[in-house]
Write a structure and sequence with these properties.
heterodimer, A: mainly beta, 3-stranded antiparallel beta sheet, 11 strands, B: 116 residues, mainly beta, 7-stranded mixed beta sheet, 4-stranded antiparallel beta sheet, 55% strand
Chain lengths: 109, 116
């Protein structure tokens, strides 16, 4: 069975501070991992995926298979980053993601 | 872009009535659509996977007779909550996977259901 764990329900930081939203997963095969973001009163949308190895809105995430983690990082948080962030895992060949419970990021001015 | 719409955005109904929620992919064809339920401050719970022209696949614990899903075309899937009860009150979100093998899903804005 696959599982995604986001240990923090809430993460509160000040503007300009570094941010790391944690995500750990359990899956026996080769996973595909994603971060989705939901801004206030907006729909859920894809932020980034591990296979792209790209930086979106200053966020990066590296898949660490040894630690089974896919933490989301940003060196300098901005107020507009305040949102719910969901880590998701898809097993190979499946199009159905398993979501973590989400972490609410609040960036204070 | 790939836009998914849902209608209605919110609905209030009396206990015992049925409510239909529509999910449309506006600018692409969606072979597969997904229905999620989201409780306050909790994650999305997948309810069912809907494939065009075939029966939906329901997740364990989701009553298929309670939550009827119809995926009649490549751009429309409907979720009908039959004989709704207050415990069915929730935020229902659909998503669609673009035909052609894309791994990501595009999400609708969600429908808030309140059953009195």
């Amino acid at each position: 069975a696959q599982r995604v764990t986001q240990p923090e329900k809430l993460l509160s930081v000040f503007k300009g501070a570094p941010v790391e939203l944690k995500c750990n997963y359990s899956y026996s095969g080769s996973p595909e991992l994603f971060w989705y973001v939901q801004y206030s009163r907006q729909r859920l949308q894809l932020l980034l995926r591990h296979i792209s190895r790209e930086s979106i809105k200053g966020f990066t995430a590296d898949l660490n298979k040894g630690e089974t983690s896919f933490h989301l990082k940003k060196p300098f948080a901005q107020e507009e980053d305040s949102a719910m962030y969901y880590c998701a895992l898809q097993s190979g060949g499946s199009y159905i993601p398993t979501f973590g419970r989400g972490t609410s990021l609040i960036v204070h001015p | 872009g790939a836009v998914v719409s849902q209608h209605p955005s919110w609905v209030i109904c009396k206990s015992g009535t049925s409510v239909k929620i529509e999910c449309r992919s506006l600018d692409f064809q969606a072979t597969t659509m997904f229905w999620y339920r989201q409780f306050p401050k909790q994650s999305l719970m997948l309810m069912a996977t809907s494939n065009e022209g075939s029966k939906a696949t329901y997740e364990q614990g989701v009553e298929k007779d309670k939550f009827l899903i119809n995926h009649a075309s490549l751009t429309l899937s409907t979720l009908t909550v039959t004989s709704a009860h207050p415990e069915d009150s929730s935020f229902y979100i659909c998503s669609a996977r673009r035909s052609g093998g894309q791994e990501t899903q595009y999400f609708g804005p969600g429908t808030r259901l309140l059953v009195l």
